[in-house]
Amino acid sequence: MTAIGKNLLVPLLLMSAWCHSQGSYNFTKAEMDTRNLVYSNPEAALPIIKKTLQQKGPLHDTVYGNTYHLYGVYHSMKGNQDSSIYYIKKSLPYLDEYPRIRARSLFTISMAYRKKTDYKAALKALEDILEINKKEKNNVSQAMVYGEIASNYNSMLNYDKSIDYLVKAVNILKAEKNTKQLTAVKQKLANTYLAKANYKFAIDLYKECLAEFKALGAMKNYYLTQVNVGEALIQINDLTQAKTYLLEAAEGLEKFGDKELIGVTYSKIGNMERMQKQYGKALASYKKAVRFLTASGSVRVIRIAGEYITILNRSGKHTEAADVIKSVDKLDQFKNANIEDRKVYQNAVADTYKANNDDKAAIKAYEHTIMIMDSIAASEKESAVEEIQAKFQTELQREKNLALEANNNRLQETVKAEQRLMALYILVSIALLTMILAFLRGYWLKTRLQQTELKTIETENELIRQQHVYEQELNNAQKEIIDEKQRELTSSALRMANYQDSINHIIDKCDSNVFTKTNDVKKELQQLIRQKDYWKQFETRFNSLHPEFNTSLASRFSKLTKNDLEFCSLLKLNLSNKEIASLLQISHESAITKKYRIKKKMDINDDEEFARVLNEM
To answer: pTM to 2 decimals?
Structure first.
């Protein structure tokens, strides 16, 4: 018998013998009944859990460990993640001698931490499971851990890492021929493709998972998958089919009482109604969504509240929008929300303050939005940043103008007061000739004081002028940064377009059954990875040095194609034909032929003239 078999057999024998000593209550049957119910009908499982824990006498460690774990699963299914973590932590001390059962509890607690956005704690629990799996040689459990790690990276918006771990999980489960767990991993992979806006592929995967979840009786996963299918269908504007999925999901999730998922579902229904310009219905759905998410303590309330506030502002209901902001600002979820969700909410808040003529609050909100936008990856659209900065600069300049106007008024009043005082001194000097010497001395001292004050005013004006120059320099610097980021964005777009085309090409080959072995697909993907690394380095370097090269060359020589321009970009960097052939993964002769054809399109025969034209661009 293997070490793994012994590890499972010992606790089962001990528990069986212990159950016989406890009389009529069948602990083994109670645990099996609870496991069968807790995922499909958690309320029916709760009385069994409580009855097991109410049994008199010391219970076996595995009874305590499994029952507290199931208590944690019950709360997780109800969306109560704090309670789930509490009961699972109670289970762990009883399972020190039973590593496989302990791994199950660690897996459940990692999911609870992920839902609370405590990704560090979630990944730590998953690392502990991997250590157990190495000792136990449990490949299926290892695959499920990879899938959950991927979910964490997906929530952290690191989709590339998420896909890497999901591919590992799929390969393991296929090798183990474990179709049951493969469905859950496929769902996670579909979630990642949805986040990466690959909606068609995500929808196909989701529909496969729906049939498999229904066959397995995993109804909560079934309804959750319906919500995701609805979201993907909304993105491709198939609103009729999306509504069917979302309404069925909302009705089904009511049975589980998971307020977070119910709130998310209503938010998607509201989004669909907004797209159909049914703003009254959309506001009602978003109101329900925010209420459910607030009650559940979900971090998702930040983004959805931002969307709700945006619709209220567009409907002219700025007072209601301000009330929603007050209620959300009382919550602690903002600091745990991801950066994209905080941006959506903060921008909606700024627009509300602006509409309510609260300029100082609007400026502060726009400042927060800019800080958030500066932290977003370079692939974010730069136009959104410029729009927020324009709003901020407008409000800031307005505030400065008001301050300068008030300061000028004060200075004018001061000058007028001093002029009146000077006239009074002159009248007193005429009337009091006997005191002329004293008056002249006082007048001289006063004049000197006034000169000092005038110099002070001139100094202040000079400081204001210098500040204005500094602000202009700062604005110019910001413009240069924006221009630089725009070039990086263009490079990123080109890189991703090439990468997407390559992926589509591989998919077409798969659909056409061109590949006969998995290694063929692997080689294609490895080649694609090498190409991705090359263009990432090349585009960043080239666009920084020669931002106008492609535009000028295409304008002067209209026969050149996009591929021709990319080839000329490599020549612009003085790369040899051999280096270009290596980078483009073509033969040396093909590179020479490509260069010859480009010269023909440009009506150039001489290599020196060709090099001169490229250098002048």
So the answer is: 0.42
